[in-house]
Task: structure prediction
Amino acid sequence: MTDEQYMQLALQEAQKAFDAGEVPVGAIIVMNNRIIARAHNQVELLTDSTAHAEIIALTTAFQFLGSKYLPEASLYVTLEPCLMCCGALYWSKIGKIVWGASDEKNGFSKTAGDNNPFHPKTTLVSGLLAEEAAKLMKDFFKARR
Result:
């Protein structure tokens, strides 16, 4: 599968969050062309401000592999990670991170600026299917205002 196809699956996860009344962020972790984790935001469901899609996906992948490191894995997430998620991704040593929409309010780039909060060996790709991811976010917040 291609990066775009994996991001489509992450968007499906984001739609699940949307449908559940959660901020619509979805994540997929892939290793050796196999999906090893799928997740979406569950902050409201779990009453846990750390229950971001990325964190849940990482925990699932760690448990699946029986490892705390993911250097051969790729994360596809619909929204630019926040600093909390960046810290978890850094420590996971994940090989590649692909995100869709930028998050001007809570994304890492707002706070980190030019500093890279990810592991030095992590490859970054931004803006993949950004319009689709941004539309889902806009629709979610528009419906709540």
Summary: The radius of gyration is 14 Å.
